[in-house]
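Tat pathway signal protein: structure, please.
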Amino acid sequence: MSEEKDMSRRKFLKSGILAAGALAVGTSIFHTQVAEAAQLPEGEHCAPPSFPYPYVQLDPEKAKLDGYAGYGKSKCSYGAFEAVIGQLREKIGYPYTHVPTQVLGWGGTGGGGWGTLCGALIGAATAINYTMPKSDADKVVSELFGWYCDHPFPEFMPEAGKALEYEGPIEKSVAKSPLCHVSVSVWCDASGLKAESKARSERCARVTADVAAKTVELLNQFHSKNFKAVYKNEVVDDCMICHGKGHSLENTRGMMDCEQCHTDVDPNNLVDHIKKSWDLL
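Here you go.
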């Protein structure tokens, strides 16, 4: 009889412990859901937020540090995106609390390792478009890309002992292109270092910091009505006189520097180039 009582007592205690555990988990989930729901405006628990999302002035220096740290977590695209969206999440809350910044991880290394558009620009441009309509975003993104092409990277340097992969100064270079593979290759030529070196990875982390800070500067200017597009590439303008929309050849699009890839064209002897384009040579 005593053994039966002990068995019953054990079953009771075991059931009580399991029930208490289930209650604790359920309560935790409930509080999490309540906290998330508190971020939603009343009556909009199921409706998507209106677009574009709200904006407040951000800190470029914080964006620089966050972009650098973000590169360490999930490379350049995520780093630049999180540097902007993270601040907006802290300052505004909803709807930025529902933006999963990890989705920009794919943009690292120019998009899945393809070396196309610099990942920092992918993340930055996406963040820009969250805060304004496409018609405005196109202008701000274009200005950011133009700045990137002409800026001597990297400018940012972490405090001593806090570098991600490489301490000290790093050789600067001007990419003259928004493309990852061009930006990296130009830097490798300037520095004499390898594309897979720790120094190159550190360089890209610092580029991410610079891009994040510049993005916040442009966003602050735009949302305070002080933005003015200043980037201009006269080489591209000259080429588009024939190759651009509505002109005689109309066989290309874009705003990247033409001479960097079209090395067969002598800018001082465009007559021969024109003749060749028209099969007159």
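Notes: The first helix runs from residue 2 to 38.
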